[in-house]
Amino acid sequence: MSTEDLVTAIRAGDLPAVARLVEAMPDARRRAELPRLKQLRRELRDSATSRAGAATALLIAGAVCHSAPAEAADWLARGEIDGAAGWDRPPLIDLLHAQPEDWQREVGLRLARRRAGRADGWGSMALFGVAEHLLRRTGTPPPAEPTLTVDWMRDRSFPRFWSALTVLSPDTDLYTRLRADSFTPVLAPLVFDGPTALWFDRPRGARADTERWPTVLTMLTADGTIDRASFLARGFARLARGGAVGEQRTYLDLVTRLEPVTGELAVNRRALLAMLDGDSVVAGFALESLVVLDGAGLLGEGEVGEVAGVVVARPEKKLVRVLLGWLERVAAGGRVGVALRAVAGCLGHPDRLVQGRALKVIKRYVDLVEGGVVGELRSAALLLDPSHAAVAAELLGVVVGVSAVEVVADRLPEPPRPVPVPAPFGTPAELAEELAAAAGSTSFERLLDGLTRHAWQDRDALAAALAPLPQSWEPLHVLALVATGTTPPEALAPLFQYRYEYGGAFGSVLAARLHEVAWRLAADPVPFLLATPSWCNGALEAGELVARLARYEELGVRPGPVDFAQALLRTAGDARAAADAGRLTSVAGRQLAAWLREGGLPGRESVVVPKGTEKYRYCEQPAPDADRLGLLAVAAGEPLPEPLRLLLGPQPDLLEHYWGKGSLPDERAAAVLPHHREETAVRLLPRCGDDRLPLLLAENGGPCGPAVHQLLALSGSAEDGRGRAAAVDALLVLAAREAEAPTGFDPALLGREAGALVRDGAVKPNRLARTLADLAAAGAPRLAWTVLAALLPVLLDAPVPRGAAELLTAAVDLARETGARGGIPAVTRLATGGGRSKAVTEARTLAALLGPDGG
């Protein structure tokens, strides 16, 4: 018998032959087979296909060829069993049974530890079955490994359909199976210690409570299978450690199902105190539990202060209100000093309503304390909002407030100056280095031009420089292969999918440019591209375009229709450059001269379309007239390239407008129409949350219409803080530019659009409030107030939307900071209409600050 006999049997998945051959080998011969079996494992792993059972046969045969249990367990743990193979049936299982009992026990233990928490494929999970079988066969309990509990829970959640070894009846419910399972007393108490939360909802679709893990674990605790005290302690410790919100709430659900009594809460009081720093729901449970302990007289004075110090610093006002209600009961119970010391921390809370409630507690009990407690209250009162000045003076004799506001102009930045695009790449090596890390509009345009230039100058040198680059389906990498002649231009055909994958009309233009450049590189090369920008925002200097086209005429090169059209869109009118272009003799030269004389692409005004049946109000532009499109004709009688018609033609349908995919980098899209920020904004409103988009439009040219203002409002409500920061930067830039030269940026229009979008549900008022606060902190409080002053009348048009209180709070702060005066009727109506909500309270404070309407 040769080694190849065993290899051949394994490859064929012939399990009886494998078992027969291995069984006949002495130990020395088995060890001699290992090098070839290791080589075979690599071959099978790298093979796309293999016979069913080959992997399993190799795994079991290799394991028993290792006389040392540690090496056998390592061999098994590094492999994966074919789920259709019969490791658990004769003849393979007989190979395992023939090993010494100590070998089986040690392999089972080591494999169980190595298996802990591994991948979740069914074939990989079968290794848990191998470990369990060896442990059960030798009467060995499983190791108390928390992550092994994950495999155990996964295994017990489903019938063991991959194994012929029936240990637990699959026809019983989960509770009955676990009651009969000798692994349960060891592993069930560890569910809080490993990453088990994913399996708490398994098996999905279970109809009976006795099939659900949380219920079953509760039942096992009640019947004594799991030690209750230890289990609860592990649960509280797990919640105190913190973690992902979903996991924490899963574990909290199990703890609350156990209904811990006061004595059990007392034993775990330190964990409860630590839980106050966790997820809001976990912290709420901890606070309620600590309140129960205090009611039972089991919480010390220092712990009351510790609870208050943590909770008052949390952002959830609901928790702070619960805290104040508890502290009021503490004071009513006779521990006035303890309660008021804790209440003092609430006087510096950012929410004015919380401050007001804290003052009510102080008012009720301040006469019962003296000395140090009063001093602490007076010091804390200095942090009160000025709206509580009268109460603070009456109760504590403290003067709270601000001096007269010195009204100063906003500190706006210098308007940004255009940043030139770096010079073309001097060598193919420079081009290759940049291509390896291409990012952004500027890099993209330079690379597109660089491939064109160096393919014209020396295609062989370009190919040598680009040879080390890894293969990629990134468009510029494919284009590089076309430029070097190693790939036909047909490879760029899939890039027309950009129309769908990269965002509608702008993606269509990008796809058409790439397609045209590919065909020029392959069949009709040009010395450089016409549309490469002069400035990083995508703008192209008119004189530079004239010089490029003149060079084309000298060389007898025909412009690419899409390249030339894109060049025109990036160029504004210029009378001097138009005169120079008038001396050109080509059709394209005459077209360029007319373009520059006419002032470039005519603009279009946007109109606001009410919400209607759509998600929120939006902007659209009327269909362009024939002259606007005809001005872009790139040759006599030649129609405008279709992608340009899509970009500049009628408004796209609403599905694309709102739900078009947004993978095209914003800097590339914004660089297509650098002199028309309003038209760009109309097209890019679906992606208004992208980080850099607001600032990119602010740095572009052209008037600001309602679409720009809508986009700014939506960006100010972005979920990501970076998107809101970009909105702040854009507002500062636009305000600075407006002060230098009119652009149409109107803070009042921004406020009205933002208010309407809040009412539509498209803008989150709390996020917008933070953005405006950040704008004020950045040096423009008057700008922020102007936005809010125009927003509030729209926002407060009955019924008052949810979340209005956050914007009213921001308005109070800004009105106080800017010294704003003159009442807003909508605010006055809300302030005088009755009610005790936070919105009404803040409206009253704001109305008092602003004074009479129109004053």
Could you characterize what this model shows?
A hairpin with an 8-residue loop joins strand 1 and strand 2 (618-620). Helix 3 packs antiparallel against helix 4, helix 13 (228-241) packs antiparallel against helix 14 (245-257) and helix 32 runs antiparallel to helix 33 (587-598). The chain has 855 residues and is mainly alpha-helical. The protein is flat and about 100 Å long. It is built from 47 helices and 2 strands. Among the domains are: 1-140; 420-525, no CATH class; 626-850. It has a two-stranded antiparallel ribbon. The termini are far apart. This is Secreted protein. It comes from Kitasatospora phosalacinea.
Give the tags:
855 residues; single chain; two-stranded antiparallel ribbon; 47 helices; Secreted protein; mainly alpha
Q: How large, in whole angstroms, is the Cα Rg?
A: 37 Å
For the report, how would you describe the main beta sheet? 2 strands, antiparallel
Which residues sit in consecutive blocks of at least 5 with pLDDT less than 50? Answer: 116-123, 498-502, 652-662
Number of helices: 47
Shape: flat
Number of strands: 2
Task: Quote the beta fraction.
Answer: under 5%
**Class by helix and strand content?**
mainly alpha
| Distance N to C terminus | 106 Å
Helix content: 55-70%
In what order do the strands lie side by side in the largest sheet? 1-2
Mean pLDDT across the residues is 84
Protein name: Secreted protein
